[in-house]
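User: Predict the structure for this protein chain, please.
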Amino acid sequence: MPRIARLVVKGEPAVYHVISRTALDGFVLGDIEKDFLLKLIKRLSSVYFSEVLGFCVMGNHFHLLVRM
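Assistant: Here is the predicted structure, written as structure tokens:
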């Protein structure tokens, strides 16, 4: 069964759920790496004119809710 087509409204910002996971086994993101990742996300969101609505950083992956 195919998925329902996305609703795109011209002139309105889109919201995306972004996920990234490590290819390695185990939990490779410690406190230092998590802090670095959060600072990087903050810096890049201003460069690319996006707004981070929410985030969750785990030991081996992260989730972002981004409005662009």
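Residues 6 and 14 are 11 Å apart (CA to CA).
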